[in-house]
Amino acid sequence: MWLSNMLAHDFIRNAFIAGTGIALASGLTGYFLVLRGQVFSSDALGHVAFAGALAALVFGFDARLGLFAFTIAAAVGLGLVGARGRADDVVIGGFFAWVLGLGALFLTLYTTSNSAANGTKGINTLFGSIFGLSHPEAVAAAWIGAVVSVAVVVMARPLLFASLDQAVAAARGVHVQAISLVFLVLVGITTAEATGAVGALLVLGLLAAPAGAAHRLTSRPFRAMWFSAAFAILSVWLGLVLAYAAPRLPPSFTILTVASLIYLIAATIGRVSRRWENNLPV
Fold it and tell me: Which of 35, 133, 135, 137 is the most exposed place for a label (fewest CB within 10 A)?
């Protein structure tokens, strides 16, 4: 009865629809982000999403237009600047600092030039508003997540090869730079869409925590990839239920709390398993 009452609300159903697609894409792309050591890239792209959304609002466009345009462009830029499509920490760090300042500039312009602006849209972009999605927005998020997920699954084998050993992959005919650029674009799309669910500041957690948990539990790449997707979906589902049960808790907080707990449990299980296999005291 409690579950049916919860699902009777339109905003809950919309949150589950959007959240499932976003979580699936986040889990799959997040696995390869962790494998490739590019987690910092998703953090930088999250802040780009914030700056892009506010830039669009300043110039009178829809926030989602700026969010996607800026994030995808930044993903391509990071891929082109970085060696073989894999941007290093120096490149990302410098870009990150500039984007933070740019986001602050657009936030100031938006709140001071628009007399009706109260900062709500800026706050929603920073911390997410999954309970505020309309049905068309939720369906669009689910479709975008599904398309990204299919693309990651299709390119999973060559991407895995390029992630583990670029030189050997290139020698075997894998277009390493091209596949790395495509992957970063998929990460950019996922980050832009996930910003609406958990916010620009917290999107890193949804991309990294489930993937980190999967890496802790198994060394088999494709099994870990699906573990990561399952953990991300579980984080969103349980997070939404907790947020509904405790209305004072924002859904972004509950989703990321569940994801963090899953990571801690997986890390503990992985540590105990390794010690057990090596005949060491737990």
Answer: 135
pLDDT, tens digit, 9 for 90 and up, residues 222-243 = 999 999 999 999 999 999 999 9
Q: Give CA–CA dist 241/255, Å, rounded.
A: 9
Q: Whole-angstrom Cα distance, residue 105 to residue 125?
A: 15
Residues 183, 206: Cα–Cα separation, whole Å: 17
> Rounded to two decimals, what is the model's pTM?
0.86
Closest CA to 179 of 84, 75, 74: 84
- For the chain, what are the domain ranges? 2-268
263: Cα separation from own chain's centroid: 16
Query: Has domain 2-268 been given CATH number 1.10.3470.10?
Result: yes
Distance of CA 203 to the CA centre of its chain: 5
